[in-house]
Amino acid sequence: MSGAPETPKSHGRIAVRPTLRPRELMTDRPDLAGAWRAKIITLFPEAFPGVLGESLTGKALDEGKWQLETVPLRDFGEGRHRNVDDTPAGGGAGMVLRPDVMGRAIDFAMEGTPETRADWPLVYLSPRGKRFDQATARRWSRARGITMICGRFEGLDDRVLFHYGIEEVSLGDFVLTGGEIAAQAMIDATVRLLPGVLGNAESLEEESHASGLLEHPQFTRPAEWRGLPIPEVLMSGHHGRIAEWRRKMAEKITRERRPDLWAAHEARKDRDTP
Ligand code: SAH
């Protein structure tokens, strides 16, 4: 394969070490029992797994419950210097990632993935995208994997987005210097929804955004700290009263802090009660 990258870099203990395999076999990347897989096109592969290598996501990565593969954009660059960017057409500040270079990286990353985008989304992290939320994490967690493109500089040549019909997703209404932090945040939110990643599946059902409400406040020992006691009901051992208190608090906090979420919650309730 001409212009083939050196080696896609897999993370996690079970990942195959490139040195153990002949180079030509590397295109036949192992798929661990179909575990959910994130492929990240980036100029900074060493930024991964980053924080995803810690705690629950890191343990799940080690156990092969999900897989991570970086596709180093530099490997697909032009010429001896492996150039990946050029000046913006029409002038102006900064540099733009070249479509030919990015196209080669995308073709490589998408090789062998399911045709249907619902099964394998192709995403560009972008401040112009639709804002990432829990529903998107849930949708992605039901796919078999995802390919994410991390931009740098002024971003991608727009023709790439058009040509591949790429989904643009934003971490929020602010501008980062690159897509890597956004990718890690979104992968974290997605991976924790995969079966077996969180020990306690119940915590998924109650937490913020799962039901369209923000979560109730949490407390733990000591029972009194700096003159502040834990709300008495939580110490009562009365499960019915505790559940009721938590529901009321979740509603109060959502109403006060996020009128937008509250309005959507009320609308859903109206719809569901005939
Ligand atoms: N000139 C662009 C910003 C480029 S920032 C614009 O004004 O729209 C450089 C890269 O950082 C982007 O290509 C994108 O991949 C990433 N990035 C920046 N902000 C982001 C955000 N809020 N969400 C996701 N990715 C972001």
TrEMBL record:
Gene Ontology biological process terms in this record? tRNA N1-guanine methylation
Residue ranges of domain tRNA methyltransferase TRMD/TRM10-type in the record:
38-263
Location relative to the cell = Cytoplasm
Keywords per UniProt: Cytoplasm, Methyltransferase, S-adenosyl-L-methionine, Transferase, tRNA processing
One Pfam family, short name: tRNA_m1G_MT
- Provide the reaction this enzyme catalyses: guanosine(37) in tRNA + S-adenosyl-L-methionine = N(1)-methylguanosine(37) in tRNA + S-adenosyl-L-homocysteine + H(+)
Q: Which InterPro entries match?
A: Alpha/beta_knot_MTases, tRNA_m1G_MeTrfase_C_sf, tRNA_m1G_MeTrfase_TrmD, tRNA_m1G_MTases_N, tRNA_MeTrfase_TRMD/TRM10
| Chief site of localization | cytoplasm
Could you name the Gene Ontology cellular component terms for this entry?
A: cytosol
Residue positions annotated to bind S-adenosyl-L-methionine are: 151, 171-176
The annotated subunit structure for this chain is: Homodimer.
Q: Which family does it belong to?
A: Belongs to the RNA methyltransferase TrmD family.
Q: What does this protein do?
A: Specifically methylates guanosine-37 in various tRNAs.
Please report the name of this protein according to its UniProt entry.
Answer: tRNA (guanine-N(1)-)-methyltransferase
Gene from which this protein is expressed: trmD
